[in-house]
Structure formats: C-alpha cells, structure tokens
C-alpha cells in the first residue's frame, strides 16, 4: 500500500483515537471515575473526483452528539493532530464555534470537524472496513460511546450504529462474556525502545473469556474451535490495525510462544483467513483449533466456542502524563509490541497461561456439568417412557399424551425431552454468571441448593482505575486467579472513594469486568443494561486519573 | 402344641407369666394396639396408581414450562419426629420437606434416579416379582454409584407413597436367624419349623407369613451372631423351652457404625409380628456398651431413618435383660475383661441419654449413667471369664426366673 494511501487510511481512526484520549483525560478531570459516554457521528460522503479518474473525493465529518465532557481547543488540536499525522496532506476544517474550551458545567460541548481526502474506491472500501473494525473494538471497552457511522458514495447511502460488541450469533440465550482477569505483570522495555523517553512502566493485564457463554451453550458438547486475541493499549485503544504490515504481532505467529496449548489438549494453528468484511469483531490474532482424533467420535459442535483473549497494556508513571505522552505510548506499543513482549516473555507467558488455564478449566467444568445434566435428563425421560408405555391404564397414557400434546409415544418422547431441556436450560441460565444476585431466585428453601449453586452466580467486581497520572493509582490485582464463579475485587487505590469501593464490593454483580452495580431484577429491559455493565468497567479500569 | 417336652418346670416361668399378664393389662388399658399410622400395606393397583400420579404431576409441570420436582419428607430431621410411649419414634403428620428439583445442578441426578427406581418398582409390581435393594443397585451400579444411594431413594419413595417397602416389591437383602418354638407357613406355602438345635433364616416376606404357631414363654433378641451361636451350642433353647431366639444380620448402616450393624428390617418385622400375634415378653441381650443400647432402642422405639414406618416396626414392650452395666459390678466381672469407652462411645451415650424416650425409662438411664461414670464397657463374652457356659447356664436362667430385666 502506498505510504500516502496508508496515511489516508489511518486518518479517520487516528483522529478518533486522539479524540478518545482527549475525552478520557477531560472526563477524568471533571468527574473522577466517570465513564466516557456520548455519541460520535462519523460520516463519509464520497463523490467522483472532478480532477482525477477513478478517484473519489471523500469528505469525512466527525461530530459529537449528546453529552460529551470537555472541549477541544482548535489550535491545540490542529497542532497536535498534524504532529501525529505528519506529512499528511488532507484538509482539516474546524467549523463549530462551540469548539472552544467550554466552561459550561453541564459539560455538553458539541463539535464538528471535517477533513477531505481523495481516494480510490477500493481504498475507500478498505478504509471503511478498517474504521468499522476499529469501532467494533472500541465499543468493547467504551460501551457507553455510541458511534453512528455512515457512508454515502455517489448518492448511495448506508449507515451502521455501533453500540454493542458482537461476539457471536444473535440467537444466543446469553450474549455476554464473562472474562477472567489475569494477574498484571510489569513489562520490561527493551533498551533500544527505552531511549524513546518513556517515563513510566508498562503493565500487561490479560483477560480471557469464552464466547458464547458456556453454561447456556446447550445441545452440543462444547469444544473450543477458535481463539481470538485482541490487543489494547492505554485507555483501551486498539493497538493494531488489520492492514498494517507490522512485525507487531509476529510473536503470535508462533501459537505456543505464550501459551502451551498442549496442556489443554488443543491443537492450535494460526488462522490467516481474517476477513474484515463482516459484522463480527475482527481479532488482532486468530487461531484455529483443530479437532483431535479422539473428538471425532463424539457429537461435537462444528461451530464450537471461541476463546477470547484480551491483552491490555497500560501505562503507569509517577509523573503527570500528558495526552501526547499517552499518544506516544500508543504509538510505541503499536510499533514495538513484539519486542516488548519478548523482553518479558516469561512473565507474560505465566500471566497469560494462568488466565487461559482458568477459563479453560471453567469450560471443562461447564462441559462436565452439561454432560451430567444431559445424562440425568436422559435417565428421567427413559424412566417416564418406561412407565408410560408399560402402563395398562389407557386413561393414564391418554392423559400423558394429551398433556404434552403428542399424538404417539414417539412424539411424546421427543416433546418430553424437549420440555425437560427447556425447563432446565432456563434454570441453568439463571445460574449463569450473567444473572443477578442469587437472592432473586426462588431457591431459599431448597435443601438441595448447594454452595456450588451459590458460586455459580458469578459476582466479579472490578473496581478499576489505572492511571498514567499519579503513582498511587496503581492496578492492585487481588485474588485475580479465582474462577469466574467467585467474587473478585480488582481495586484501584485512586479511582474510587473508599465508600464507593465498599459499596461496590458489597454488591454482587455477575459482570466480571464491571464495577458492581445494583441490579433491578430480571426483566425485559435488563439485557441492554447488563450489556453496558458487562464491559463498561473496562473503560473505568483503563481510565487515566485526574490531572494535577 | 406338639413340641418335645423339655425345659424347666412350669414354676420357673412364674415371673415371666406375671410379666406377660402385666403387659397384656397395659395393652388393654391403652385401648389395644395403637392405630397404625404412617405406612400401610397397599395393593399392587394402589401402588401403580400412585406412581402414575407422580408421573402425571411431572408431565403436567413440564407442560406448564415449570421444572418438575419431588417433595420428600425430611426423614433425617429430629424436628419431624415425635416420641410416643406406645409407639416409639415416629414421624409427625406435618413434617418439613425438601425438594428434589430437576433444574438444580445438584439435585438433577437424584431427581432422575428417583424416576429410575420408580420405573423399576412399577415393573416389579406389575409383574408381581420381587427384588432386593441389592438387585436394584446392580441393575445399573455405575449410574447409582453406591448402595446407600439406592437404599435412601427406596426409603424416600416408601415415605413419599406412604407404603411399606414390601408393597413396593422390594425385599430387604439381609436376613436374621431364628431358633426355638415356632412354626409358620410362608406366603408361597413353604412350611417352616424352627427348632431348638439349629437356626433357620428369617423369612424375607414377613408380611406374607401365616399360621404362626408357638407356645414360647419369651422371645430373646440376641445382638450378636456369635452369642446366638454360643447359646445354640449350649442348647439354651431346649433348656429354656419353650422360647424363641432371634439374631439379626448385621447391616452396615452409615459409616458411623463401623464394624457393627443395625438390625435388619425383616428381623424387626418378625419381632413385631410375634409380639402383635402372641404378646409374648420380648427381651434383648446386648453388649453393655452404647452401641448395644442403641440397637436395643431401635427394636424398642425405632430409628430416625425408619420413623415413617414406626408403627410396623417398633415393640415398645421390649425389656433390657442384659448385659446390664450394674451386672458388671454385681457379678464381679474382672476388670481385665472390660474395655475403656472411646470418645465415640461417650458421644453415643450422651446422644442416647438426650433422646426423648430415655425420660420414661429411669432404670435404663441409671444403667447408662453407671456406664458413663465408670467409662468402661463390656461385651457379653466377658461372662465367659466367670465360666465358659456362665451365660446360658447361670446368667440368663437366673435373669429370666427372677425377673432381672428392666
């Protein structure tokens, strides 16, 4: 790809990254620990260029809508963005008078920026796919930002809204993931990179999850069919763009560099067939899991589950971190990630291995539990069938058939099995870590209720708040090695006040990467709220602290 | 009654006869035998209908998209058990229950196993065949896991349907031994003549026994098989004729009773049947230790686990013949034959002392306190240190002649 074209491709996402860094810093200053929320509208209008053949003149507008904290100072913005996009020749126009620094206490500061580039149609198409994928990844960690992305090419209009990450098909009973957080490790910076003026340290925190939710994935034996790795830098910004020809992800070409998959009886190969064009989030690194011979005899689900591995690299410094420094870290990680990871290979490997191990152990337990359930239901169905078909009482048999609206015993068996499956699945869904406190479930007087059931309600509290600003805002991993079913507290000293921390610790939440939120109970509107809560804390966790 | 003439003179049994008269008088004052509660013998069609009703309930729940569940009485909870002097320990009418749910990961297997055993029972009853609990376990040992699971589920089903195990066509595996002056006809027509010289196994179908005939003056329940055999060898039954002697087969019942067992159901049913039919005095010969006392209490008052069937099993009229802790001192049994009580023994003793029925047995309480104070226990075999046949020649005859029971 030509340098100029490559630069143009990066423009949209670069500006978005800059905006997000800016907003995060501004948000943290105004309201400690608040989530970044608002709406960004990105529109590209392309018309055939009058000056060049087979070229589209693209006008890209990025505008805010809704409440966005902080304001952009135009001159500063232009200076900084041009230093980032060095050598880029597109035009940047600032059109909103409200773009000046707003003292409005409501914090509502709309703005709009427009820039123009000339691109080939195919390049524009690639641009759009890259931006879409970037937005997909952003909303995983910043779910309260809503992106409206529209493209109009010679009058043909299309629009997409990004406000919820898609990890799988929409037919799932539980569309949430339940990440397990790993232990943070300090990354050593190689000598040749250390000289780039980085006054702080890099911390890697892995998080792993299975998608879809294993406890609800029924009817088939769950198997891991693919592994997706997502790389994030400070403030939850994606590190790698798919089109970059970078050695950044070179280390991941060796599937066993950080994870010994054989320990989990997984045969993993790199998946090079990464297609930007899709509704699903495109991972930075993708592996395929090949079936072993022993698995083929079983009734395996061809689609299987995906192991998601999120690698968050954050930046900590004892000195106040400026926006541009954060930008520099982001750039550094984008270009030198491999080298940085290799420098701390052992620590990175341990942290990732343990995290993945926990998730796979949960998966194993979930498969066993599912098998146990299936076996039990099979016994129950066969026993009922034995009595029903063996009965000499025609009235009894008739009542049985009528109750399940079956015409014969064959149909009766099928409906019986289905009914058992549906009723138990519903209950197991409530046991799923995505559900609210156990108190909401009618299990109080059940002597069979065990502590295991209690633990099944995942209540992982993540009290986040990393910072590049002050030294005491340090990730404090505590008991991060517990499984999804147990309560974890991931507490930051500075992000939350003690009372807030205590409140969150007291509340049971099933959202592994979110701060505890009180739940209102099961209801139709709950799922959307739960989605936000599910990953919203990633942004809190990665938010910078207030400026001095 | 055409038994060979043997045994002591008639005057030997004077005290025994008085005791029997006293027991009968008590029964008459109490209005006869207490009304049967808890389980009752059910016909095959009743059992089949009950099982079908359960299945219908399960299917109805499923049709309503509700996870079906079984409601089972808490047999193992003291709060569900009351004591009545005439019955012993039995379940209260409105007892606490627990749910075995099909949609709980912990209980779904149990739920399925209950259905499995219900289907087995259904087939047995339908085909009028019988199986033991052991047979049922071996139909799918891998599925059940262990015998205790099967036993508990069968008891739960018996309690749930309010019918005795026999009505479910499930037989008790273990059998006791019986000897003495007794004859009867089994359900299948087999004639059983017990003798004084050798023992015959207790029938596995007590409820089917008919034409019971005896003129025994007493029934002696012997805790241990070794003691039973010793008495047989000493020709005790003949010397004390007419009498009946019975010993249960030990059944390991929970690991708490390591090395020893509780009385099997068939032996208990037989003792109960003999008492109900003939009202002959029943005595127990157990070791002077907490476990022996507990065995005796089970015969007399029943157990928590089987409290739902108390009316078919308990014989409150049983008296403690020996070995009494007070006999140890009275007979100058050598201290070297005594065994120090363990911590488990002490806990067991304390537990028995707290049971509701001990309050109406002051003499038993006193004996237990003697045992507790001495912190020593003794087996019946300790009497052999006085002489090898002391038990059958001296101890038991004197006890029976002079009313040495409590």
UniProtKB/TrEMBL annotation, chain A:
<feature type="compositionally biased region" description="Polar residues">
    <location>
        <begin position="511"/>
        <end position="521"/>
    </location>
</feature>
<dbReference type="Pfam" id="PF15091">
    <property type="entry name" value="DUF4554"/>
</dbReference>
<feature type="region of interest" description="Disordered">
    <location>
        <begin position="443"/>
        <end position="527"/>
    </location>
</feature>
<dbReference type="InterPro" id="IPR028040">
    <property type="entry name" value="TopoVIB-like"/>
</dbReference>
<protein>
    <submittedName>
        <fullName>Type 2 DNA topoisomerase 6 subunit B-like isoform X5</fullName>
    </submittedName>
</protein>
TrEMBL record, chain B:
<comment type="similarity">
    <text>Belongs to the TOP6A family.</text>
</comment>
<keyword id="KW-0460">Magnesium</keyword>
<feature type="domain" description="Spo11/DNA topoisomerase VI subunit A N-terminal">
    <location>
        <begin position="109"/>
        <end position="170"/>
    </location>
</feature>
<keyword id="KW-0479">Metal-binding</keyword>
<keyword id="KW-0413">Isomerase</keyword>
<feature type="active site" description="O-(5'-phospho-DNA)-tyrosine intermediate">
    <location>
        <position position="138"/>
    </location>
</feature>
<protein>
    <recommendedName>
        <fullName>DNA topoisomerase (ATP-hydrolyzing)</fullName>
        <ecNumber>5.6.2.2</ecNumber>
    </recommendedName>
</protein>
<feature type="domain" description="Topoisomerase 6 subunit A/Spo11 TOPRIM">
    <location>
        <begin position="218"/>
        <end position="400"/>
    </location>
</feature>
<dbReference type="InterPro" id="IPR034136">
    <property type="entry name" value="TOPRIM_Topo6A/Spo11"/>
</dbReference>
<dbReference type="Pfam" id="PF04406">
    <property type="entry name" value="TP6A_N"/>
</dbReference>
<dbReference type="InterPro" id="IPR036078">
    <property type="entry name" value="Spo11/TopoVI_A_sf"/>
</dbReference>
<dbReference type="InterPro" id="IPR002815">
    <property type="entry name" value="Spo11/TopoVI_A"/>
</dbReference>
<keyword id="KW-0238">DNA-binding</keyword>
<dbReference type="Pfam" id="PF03533">
    <property type="entry name" value="SPO11_like"/>
</dbReference>
<keyword id="KW-0539">Nucleus</keyword>
<dbReference type="InterPro" id="IPR013048">
    <property type="entry name" value="Meiotic_Spo11"/>
</dbReference>
<dbReference type="InterPro" id="IPR004084">
    <property type="entry name" value="Meiosis_Spo11"/>
</dbReference>
<dbReference type="Pfam" id="PF21180">
    <property type="entry name" value="TOP6A-Spo11_Toprim"/>
</dbReference>
<dbReference type="InterPro" id="IPR036388">
    <property type="entry name" value="WH-like_DNA-bd_sf"/>
</dbReference>
<feature type="domain" description="Meiosis-specific protein Spo11">
    <location>
        <begin position="2"/>
        <end position="44"/>
    </location>
</feature>
<keyword id="KW-0799">Topoisomerase</keyword>
<dbReference type="InterPro" id="IPR013049">
    <property type="entry name" value="Spo11/TopoVI_A_N"/>
</dbReference>
């Amino acid at each position: 790809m030509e340098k100029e074209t490559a630069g143009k491709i990066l423009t949209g996402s670069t500006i978005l990254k800059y905006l997000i860094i800016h907003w995060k810093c501004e948000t943290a200053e105004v309201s400690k620990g608040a989530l970044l929320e608002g709406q960004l509208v990105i529109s590209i209008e392309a018309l055939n260029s009058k000056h060049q053949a087979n070229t589209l003149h693209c006008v890209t507008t990025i505008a805010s809508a809704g409440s966005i904290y902080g304001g952009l100072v135009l001159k500063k913005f232009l200076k900084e963005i041009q230093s980032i996009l060095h050598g880029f020749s597109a035009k940047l126009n600032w059109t909103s008078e409200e773009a000046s620094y707003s003292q409005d206490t409501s914090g509502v500061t709309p703005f709009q920026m427009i820039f123009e580039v000339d691109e080939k149609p195919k390049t524009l198409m690639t641009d759009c796919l890259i931006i879409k994928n970037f937005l997909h990844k952003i909303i995983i960690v910043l779910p309260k930002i809503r992106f409206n992305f529209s493209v109009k090419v010679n009058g043909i209009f299309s629009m997409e809204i990004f406000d919820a990450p898609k990890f799988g098909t929409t037919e799932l009973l539980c569309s949430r993931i339940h990440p397990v957080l790993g232990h943070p490790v300090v990354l050593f910076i190689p000598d040749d990179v250390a000289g780039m003026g980085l006054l702080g340290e890099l911390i890697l925190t892995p998080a792993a999850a299975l998608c879809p939710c294993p406890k609800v994935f029924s009817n088939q034996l769950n198997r891991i069919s693919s592994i997706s790795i997502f790389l994030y830098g400070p403030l939850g910004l994606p590190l790698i763009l798919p089109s970059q020809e970078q050695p950044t992800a070179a280390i991941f070409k060796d599937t066993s560099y950080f994870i010994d998959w054989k320990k989990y009886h997984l045969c993993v190969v790199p998946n090079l067939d990464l297609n930007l064009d899709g509704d699903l989030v495109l991972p930075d690194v993708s592996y395929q899991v090949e079936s072993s011979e022993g698995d083929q005899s079983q009734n395996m689900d061809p689609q299987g589950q995906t192991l998601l591995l999120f690698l968050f690299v954050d930046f900590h410094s004892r000195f106040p971190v400026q926006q541009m420094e954060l930008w520099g870290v982001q750039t550094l990680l984008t270009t030198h990630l491999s080298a940085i990871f290799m420098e701390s290979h052992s620590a990175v490997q341990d942290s990732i291995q343990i995290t993945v191990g926990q998730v796979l152990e949960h998966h194993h337990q979930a498969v066993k539990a599912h098998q146990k359930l299936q076996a039990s239901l099979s016994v129950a169905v066969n026993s009922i069938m034995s009595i029903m078909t063996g009965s000499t009482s025609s009235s009894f048999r008739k009542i049985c058939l009528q109750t399940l609206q079956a015409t014969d015993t064959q149909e009766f068996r099928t409906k019986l099995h289905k009914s058992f499956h549906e009723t138990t699945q519903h209950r197991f869904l409530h046991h799923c870590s995505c559900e609210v406190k156990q108190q909401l479930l009618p299990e109080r007087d059940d002597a069979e209720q065990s502590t295991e059931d209690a633990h099944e309600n995942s209540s992982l509290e993540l009290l986040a708040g990393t910072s590049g600003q002050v030294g005491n805002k340090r990730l404090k991993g505590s008991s991060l090695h517990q499984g999804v079913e147990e309560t974890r507290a991931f507490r930051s000293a500075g992000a939350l006040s003690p009372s807030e921390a205590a409140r969150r610790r007291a509340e049971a939440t099933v959202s592994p990467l979110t701060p505890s939120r009180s739940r209102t109970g099961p209801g139709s509107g709950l799922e959307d709220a739960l989605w936000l809560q599910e990953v919203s804390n990633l942004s809190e966790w990665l938010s910078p602290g207030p400026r001095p | 009654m055409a038994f060979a003439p043997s045994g002591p003179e008639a005057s030997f049994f004077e005290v025994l006869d008085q005791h029997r008269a006293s027991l009968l008088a008590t029964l008459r004052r109490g209005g006869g035998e207490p009304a049967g509660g808890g389980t009752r013998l059910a016909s095959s069609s009743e059992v089949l209908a009950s099982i079908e009703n359960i299945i219908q309930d399960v299917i109805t729940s499923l049709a309503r998209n509700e996870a079906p569940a079984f409601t089972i009485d808490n047999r193992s909870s003291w709060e569900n058990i009351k004591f009545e002097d005439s019955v012993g320990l039995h379940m209260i009418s409105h007892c606490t229950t627990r749910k075995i749910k099909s949609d709980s990961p912990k209980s779904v297997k149990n739920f399925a196993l209950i259905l499995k055993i219900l289907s087995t029972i259904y087939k047995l009853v339908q085909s009028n065949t019988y199986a033991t609990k052991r047979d049922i376990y071996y139909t799918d040992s891998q599925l059940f896991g262990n015998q205790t699971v099967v036993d508990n589920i069968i008891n739960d089903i018996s309690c749930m349907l309010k019918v005795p195990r026999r009505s479910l066509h499930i037989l008790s595996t273990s059998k006791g031994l019986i000897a003495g002056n007794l004859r009867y006809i089994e359900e299948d027509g087999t004639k059983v003549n017990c003798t004084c010289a050798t023992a015959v196994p207790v029938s596995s179908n007590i409820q089917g026994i008919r034409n019971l005939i005896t003129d025994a003056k007493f029934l002696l329940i012997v805790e241990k098989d070794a003691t039973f055999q010793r008495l047989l060898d000493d020709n005790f039954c003949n010397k004390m004729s007419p009498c009946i002697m019975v010993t249960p087969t030990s059944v390991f019942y929970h690991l708490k009773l390591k090395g020893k067992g509780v009385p099997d159901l068939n032996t208990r049913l037989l003792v109960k049947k003999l008492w109900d039919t003939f009202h002959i005095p029943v005595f127990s010969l157990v070791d002077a230790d907490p476990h022996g006392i507990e065995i005796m209490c089970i015969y007399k008052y029943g157990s928590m686990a089987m409290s739902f069937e108390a009316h078919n099993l308990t014989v409150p009229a049983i008296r403690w013949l020996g070995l009494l802790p007070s006999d140890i001192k009275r007979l100058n049994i050598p201290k070297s034959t005594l065994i120090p009580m363990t911590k488990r023994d002490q806990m067991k003793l304390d537990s028995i002392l707290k049971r509701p029925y001990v309050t109406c047995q002051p003499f038993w309480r006193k004996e237990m306190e003697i045992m507790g104070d001495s912190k020593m226990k003794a087996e019946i075999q300790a009497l052999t240190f006085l002489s090898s046949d002391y038990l059958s020649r001296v101890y038991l005859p004197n006890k029976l002649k002079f009313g040495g029971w409590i």
